[in-house]
Specification:
Strand content of chain B: 25-35%
Shape of chain A: elongated
CATH topology of chain A: Folate-binding fold
CATH topology of one domain in chain B: D-Amino Acid Oxidase, Chain A, domain 2
CATH class of chain A: Alpha Beta
Order of helices and strands of chain B: HEHEEHEHEHEEHEEEEHEEEEHEEEHH
CATH architecture of one domain in chain B: 2-Layer Sandwich
Helix content of chain A: 10-25%
Helix content of chain B: 25-40%
Low-confidence stretches of chain A: none
Largest sheet of chain A: 4 strands, antiparallel
Structural class of chain B: alpha/beta
Distance between the termini of chain A: 24 Å
Mean pLDDT of chain B: 93
Oligomer: heterodimer
Number of strands of chain B: 18
Number of domains of chain A: 1
Number of strands of chain A: 6
Number of helices of chain B: 10
Shape of chain B: globular
Structural class of chain A: alpha+beta
CATH superfamily of one domain in chain B: D-Amino Acid Oxidase, subunit A, domain 2
Strand order of the largest sheet of chain A: 3-4-5-6
CATH architecture of chain A: 2-Layer Sandwich
Largest interface: A-B, 30 and 28 residues
Mean pLDDT of chain A: 90
Largest sheet of chain B: 8 strands, mixed
């Protein structure tokens, strides 16, 4: 599997590290808030629960042996086809990903 | 809705019992009288229990539901052919050398069931207790394995801590003086070993069928009907099957099938590769795990070396991996057994692992009444096949987990009762 890095071009997946689903967001819980009810559900969703789809999957990759940029890769996990790659920093700024 | 609670064995194919006499009798007839060993029934509109997934776990669950709990009307629905998934994609190792108190009794019960399996189901699964040897390469690793061995022995499991000379007598081909990873010894479980994995699926299928279980192949579940918080039917490509209880044993596809009932699981699906070399004369006498890298190896009765390592590390449903992991596993293998570098690799394949977020399985009821879940086996579901089926059957039939699987709860992630055998599963956001 080869992933086209927007900065370095197409590289083998051995250069990358994987963090998983880019669709989960870290809850913005105030320090000391009780971990129950909706807060607990939000943390469960973030830490443990996953959609785990069989088709297109938005996921975070880190170009560890390259430019060390975080990327959001959309990949068909049933065929390993790369559908889209974008730098994660723009998505974080726009509030489209909150996992990091 | 009226559900049939009894069933007829009409149409059962083969009550033929395998024995030396049956083999001789068949051979005198030129082996022309062998019959299919399970039926190909049409799905009925309703069952007491429908098991989704015709792999090792699903088939053993159906078998033990019929045998141990006397449930009359059971169907196993499988989207492809039985045994087409992970029960035929593993490296066939069985063992119970665990450390966690939640795991040891469960896996030991599994090993005990393996030991009696062939007599129980009258099927040659080639259970071979050739021993499983975990190597250590440092004083710290020796201490960790001594602790593990003591935990095993406290639970009545066999374990022997071997020093370097004892390992050398057992397996002289290892690279004992490797500059980076010298072998200091190993923890041996003599009762561990290997099983012919296809025979496990076929043997359980035949045994379940002979107790009246309908095994329905090429029957993909496309929906789960939930009414008033209760699962009442599965919709399939071969029609709708009503059921009092529905058990999911779908391995890598657990998330997809559970999503049909609106459940979201703490599971990611990842690809794990396995490899086999060309066939050679006996070289590796038992199952050996490398302590300095993720690599383990055994030799099949046909002579091929079977080995494996870690998951590729990214979500996948593709049943094939990529080359960096192949390279990594080969490096581990050659570090352990340098002579492997002279062998040709015959083939490799991938299976889809249901990686739970703490690396331990789930056998439990779900928030939906009448729906039961057996999932999250990560990279170690094969060895658990008999006990997973046995415990899942108990959980379904009694509506409560057995003591052996009481810790394998679905709600343990929210409750904080993670099973700390491996520490972490696929990609929990723990940082």
């Amino acid at each position: 599997m080869r992933i086209p890095c927007p900065y370095c071009g197409e590289r083998g997946n051995a250069e990358y590290a994987y963090l998983g689903d880019a669709g989960v967001s870290r809850p913005q819980t105030p320090l000391g808030a009780a971990l129950e009810g909706a807060t607990l559900d939000a943390w469960m969703n973030y830490v443990y629960l996953r959609d785990n789809p069989a088709g297109a999957h938005r996921e975070l990759w880190y170009h560890a042996s390259g430019c060390r940029a975080w990327l959001i890769v959309t990949r068909n996990v049933s065929t390993h086809e790369i559908l889209n790659v974008e730098a994660a920093n723009g998505a974080i700024r726009d509030g489209r990903v909150g996992a990091l | 809705m009226v559900l049939p609670s009894s069933h007829s064995r009409a149409g059962a194919v083969a009550d033929l019992r395998y024995s030396i006499l049956s083999l001789v009798a068949q051979s005198f007839r030129g082996n022309t009288a062998w019959r299919p060993v399970w039926r190909e029934p049409e799905p009925k509109p309703a069952y007491d229990v429908v098991i989704v997934g015709g792999g090792g776990h699903g088939l053993s669950t159906a078998y033990y539901l019929a045998k141990e709990h006397g449930i009359g009307s059971i169907a196993v629905v499988e989207k492809s052919w039985i045994g087409s998934g992970n029960v035929g994609r593993n490296t066939t190792v069985i063992r119970s050398n665990y450390l966690d108190h939640a795991n040891i009794p469960f896996y030991e019960w599994s090993l005990k069931l393996w030991e009696g399996l062939e007599q129980d189901i009258n099927y040659n699964a080639m259970v071979s207790q050739r021993g499983v040897l975990m190597l250590y390469h440092s004083d710290a690793q020796r201490d960790a394995l001594a602790r593990r061995g003591n935990a095993m022995r406290l639970n009545g499991v066999d374990a022997e801590l071997l020093d370097r000379d004892a390992v050398r007598r057992l397996v002289p081909i290892l690279d004992f003086d490797n500059a980076r990873f010298p072998i200091h010894g190993g923890l041996l479980q003599p009762r561990g070993g290997t099983v012919r994995h296809d025979a496990v699926a076929w043997g359980y299928a035949r045994a379940a069928d002979s107790r009246g279980v309908d095994i329905i192949q090429n029957c993909e579940v496309t929906g789960i009907t939930v009414e008033n918080g209760r699962a009442v039917a599965v919709e399939t490509t071969r029609g709708k099957l009503h059921a009092r209880k529905i058990g999911l044993a779908c391995a890598g596809n657990s998330s997809r099938v559970a999503a049909l009932a609106g459940l979201r699981l703490p599971i990611e699906s990842h690809v794990l590769q396995a490899y086999v070399s060309e066939g050679i004369k006996p070289l590796v006498p038992n199952v050996i795990t490398f302590g300095a890298g993720h690599f383990y190896i055994s030799q099949s009765d046909k002579g091929g070396l079977i080995f494996g390592g870690d998951i590729d590390g990214y979500n996948s449903y593709a049943q094939r991996g990529s080359t960096p992991m192949i390279e990594d596993v080969m490096e581990g293998g050659v570090s352990l057994i340098p002579t492997l570098s002279r062998l040709r690799m015959l083939r490799s394949w991938g299976g889809i692992m249901d990686m739970s977020m703490d690396g331990s399985p789930i056998i439990d009821k779900t928030p939906i009444e009448g729906l039961y879940l057996n999932a999250g086996w990560c990279i170690g579901g094969f060895k658990a096949t008999p006990a997973a089926g046995w415990c899942f059957a108990h959980t379904i039939a009694r509506d409560a987990p057995h003591e052996l699987n009481a810790a394998f709860r679905l709600d343990r992630f929210a409750a904080g009762h993670l099973i700390d055998e491996r520490g972490a599963g696929a990609q929990p956001n723990l940082q």
